[in-house]
Amino acid sequence: MDTDAPELYGAPPLGGWSRRGFVVTSLATGFALAAGPISAQTITTDTNGLVAGDTKIPTSEGDLPAYYARPAKGSNFPVVIVIEEIFGVHEHIADICRRLAKAGYLAVATEYYARIGDLSKMTDMPTIFKEVINKTPDGQMMSDMDSTAAWAAKNQGSATKLAVTGFCRGGRQTWLYATHNPKLKAAAAWYGPVNTPDTDIQPHSPLEIADQLKCPLLGQYGGQDSSIKVDDVKAAAAKAKAAGKTVEIVVYPDAPHGFNADYRLSYRATDAITAWNRMLAWFKTYGVA
Known about the structure:
- This protein is an alpha/beta fold.
- It is about 30% helix and about 20% strand.
- The protein has 8 helices and 8 strands, in the order H-E-E-E-H-E-H-H-E-H-E-H-E-H-E-H.
- Strand 5 (about 155-165), helix 5 (about 170-180) and strand 6 (about 185-190) form a beta-alpha-beta unit.
- The longest helix has 17 residues, at about 270-285.
């Protein structure tokens, strides 16, 4: 969808991305092992009035597993691409899709790391980063997100009303996808790191290319997040605004990283509800509703 993708996100190796068999061919049920212990305040959204479940996203190298949800009645729904945390497309991300479907969207979350490892079965975050996250090319993820958008447009979703949202590492990918796909109408990044190391396969941080955003972006961050410097986020927003882009950064002063993750101890209900409603309003303001 974007001709400058090879320059910004790293060109694919000769012969394309790896065509080895996928490690993950179907989604696991429940929560990822590394995400525990699971909190008693976990939110579970029902499927009443929805069509929801597992699906496959066709790519040039095979099918990626994914979860989707949409209203049972109607068609041509506005689309939200949901990008997973470092724990994969587990129950929390599926529930996010159902919540969006209750609000009238076709929401789809693809397991973008399926080629490399099964995040649901890994037990610690350092291993997840070392063995999976840091080995996944940004260019490949951008291509897979394009494939996800194409699937949505062929499965009762709108081809013109397209948004993206992501959490944690998915927040970083939200920033990047918003610089990649000119068809996006809006983006909402939740506590996504913007100042990440450059590597051959992840060649640019969101901070470096924030001035190339192609849609309005809402960033929501915790003031007590020890893993992300608010000054870095503000610097990315300033760079984007200097280039004439629309960015709004909201910092919740008392919130930690992962404040929307209701299944974890980091959950902050008041901030999460406020942020959720702010995201929906952002989508509506910029034509994804």
